[in-house]
What does this fold into?
Amino acid sequence: CNYVLRCGGNEGWGGGRQASATIRLAAAARERGMKMKVMDPQGFTVASKGQEWIPILPATDIAVFLAISNLIVNEIGVYDKEFIRHKTNGSYLIGSDRLWVRDEPTKKPLLFDEADGKVKTYDDPTLTHPTIEGKYTAYGVECQPAFALIKEHLKQYKPGWASKISGVPADTIQLLAKELVEEAKIGSF
It folds into this structure.
């Protein structure tokens, strides 16, 4: 790990780890160059070990995470599309009732395969490139991949909105999103 954004936490036994081992591992990671930013209401806790302390109002970190998520998928546009496409149900088609659109004979969830432009069941052996965006029709039902709906839903969570709730400046939220994407090294393997 090269970058950690710590947000609260219960180190030691309460966090499922032995405290002294956690301290030793974190110190070794920092020595080798890991960056750590700490978003926490209290600056005297683990924040003293990070490169930057980001003060935040208690219990408002979810607003910051939603804004970061929006920035990553809707503005920066760098995220692991192949993982979403092949390892999650982000490509499953969802109808206006917010349920999976299913194959009528088998009742299996459907996906749209970009490779040949066909709607297929999730376990179709010919499925090679399920889409995670766009609008489609399957069995007369207008639908979209689940990820497309999530991506659209995230648009409402702007950095300014999160800043008003959390006290974290909007430009800091934008910087965190940028750094998380850069340090994730998506596509580098």
